[in-house]
Amino acid sequence: MLLRLARPLAFLLSLTTLILPAAGESILRSSSLAACQVNSGFTASLFDVVFTPSNGSVAINMIAFSSIQGYVIFDISILAYGYPIVKTTIDPCTSNLPGLCPMTSGNLNNPFNLPVGPSAIASIPGIAYSMPDLDAKVTVLVKLVDKDTRVVSKTVACLEADVTNGLTIDLIGIKWATAAVIFLALFISAIISGVGYSNAASHIAANTMSLFGYFQAQAMLGLCGVPLPPVVKAWTQDFQWSMGIIKVTFIQDILSWYQRSTGGTPSTIFDSLHTTSVQVEKMKRSLPMVTEHLGMYKRAHAMLPSTAVQEAAVGLTKRANLQTYYGSYIVYGIQRVAYRAGIESTNLFMTGLVFFYIVFVLAVILVTLFKLICEVAAKYRWIQRDTFSDFRLGWLTVLKGILFRVTLIGYAQMTVLCIWELTQNDSPAEMVLAIFFFFGMTAVLFFAAFKVYRIAKRSVRLHRNPAYILFSDPQALNKWGFLYVQFRASAYYFIVPILIYTLVKGLFIALAQAHGTVQAVALIVIEAAALITASVMRPWMDKSTNSFNIAICAINFINAIFLFVFTDVFGLPPLVIGVVGVVLWIANASFALILLLMLIITTAIVIFHNNPDTRYQFMNDDRTSFMKSNTQLGTASELDALAMTARGDGKMYQKPMLDLDDDDMGSSMRDSPPNSARHSAAHSMAHRDSLSPEMVQADGGQHLRNRPSGSSFRAPSPFNASTSNSNLSASRLSHNSANMVGYKNGGGAR
């Protein structure tokens, strides 16, 4: 069985080495040593071993304590992805190891080198030096033996060390590339929307937000308290920037100062690395020992003489990094991500909060600068006066919408970090910030969703179509459109399930850090519900966007299943878990690359297309009939003005615009919604049919070509009454058309 699994794993590993850069020098290194049995006779708080095959030596630097006395032998086994590759026994007396024959108790704190024979070097496969994030482990059993017969009497110590080769897929280039694509795509969609191509801009923005959500899902996978293979830990670390987990040295110094000044005590795990090892937890064996140790620590603190010392001890057990009884630290889950990012775990919440705030402030600054640049350019005629006119007139509303969108983008990040901070209590001030931002952002987003619901319901009541007000009122579209523009009009409410999905997922990740199995099962249920809902309802704006998002839901569900495998509740062989880890990395790397290429290519096509809106099909909800788009300007606007003048309605342009975002509507609209709806439909049909044949010929049918094939002026609505109950007869429409013809011929209106 193991051999059958090892062959495909070896094939996958050989493929990955082809796409990764070669290392400068081949090495194998271990930086932590863990005891794998209770009452181990050998423990180490610092352990750093580097094996260099080119010179055939092992450099060892450790701070350890040994209580073993007598003659011993070492049973050494090396496993790669759970598959045994080396198994040997070393007798210190026959191997000429000074100080170990016999072994004496005491402290070991002097660095030394050990030679490695050519046969031992040859037994290590070459792939061990080239596979990134190598999942290898060395287990050493120290056994007492009789001096003369060399018969084993008992095992007095068990030691385990994880081995790496210095190669990793946790690369700064991947982080910068993915972040650059996301922010450039959002910026381009904003520019395209500003010049009037709203249909193309909404498609780019929707796909960009979905891709960013996928990146956050990858990051949240790494934040789970489940033991992860090294390649999975490194892969998910590439996307922690999407959660605001970014190390900037001077910011970390400021955050440590802030924590101390507000009554907290920053952790100093990185300052103690020269004397203490850190175990990045990936095996279930570590936590029970730590739990047992902490339990004894809590029971013992009640006997301490000083109240202050007691309080400090309780605080340590609540929020500090876990520390084994022999002195080394253990990090897992969110703390594991912080350690790999080079951030003290007590600074993690504030790091995410600071970067969220930086993005928030940068959005305000950039929008304000763009407004000033547009005004200066228009004043000096560097651009036409009507360029970005909608933005220049309603830039404050646009800014509000952008800030709401930033809040939505950062909601997953702040949900996890704020709730986790409530369990850590790093300082009273940080607790207040966590409560304020979590409940504030939750209230704002659900209030915005409620506003969209109210607007859509009013649109249905007045116009029998939710798309009418949602997409015809620029104020509502610019301010609240981030919640519904990516969905079809009849699924305007789907932002509520997405917010609930984000909230529930974040709560499980933040609150169940010590219960990895619970997290894995919860994520399977959550992702399965998301996949089923997306596949059945298909709420996004068109077929391609639905396929894009359903594919993301499917890969998230598969990742949740893989996460459950990593919990090892079934007692699977380590080789199986190693294979699943490599498969997760390859599958997600391929999927992310495909999504990135799709977004880059479609965005590039839109940039160089003469009319980007025509590249996308019209949505079935006919939102383009209500949205102000560049494809509908020009001759269509001239025809609208001429037709309204012919009917004597030219003064309507002089009336103040009705604020459709305001809940306080006029009494006439409340009292008779059916009549208002019929009047709106009649007015639209009268405008279309009142055009003279000469005007239609002059227009060349452009106003008809902008409509979907086979549609009337009013597209079919999901509501049955939307195309009925017109109070205009055919003769009335013909009469209006005749009036228009007479007016154009100089006769005026009859």
TrEMBL record:
The keyword Ribonucleoprotein does not apply. Residues 1-24 form the signal peptide. One of its GO terms (cellular component) is membrane. Its main location: membrane. It is found in: Membrane. SMART domains: TRP_N. It holds the Pfam family TRP. Belongs to the transient receptor potential (TRP) ion channel family. This is ML-like domain-containing protein. It comes from Podospora appendiculata.
